[in-house]
What we know:
By secondary structure, this protein is mostly helical. It is built from two helices and no strands.
Amino acid sequence: MSEEEYKQLHPILTQVTQTYVDLYTNKPNEENRQKLIKLEALLHDKLETLKKARGE
């Protein structure tokens, strides 16, 4: 049985499998995205502190 035949016979199982593969494949990217969001918030806080210190 070819992969295309399997996809036609079991579309839901194929999609669930692809979803799991995508989740594990993209997990490192998601972790990096979360770290960048935290760093962005920290940078924003530090810039606000700097503006207050300058009297802006």
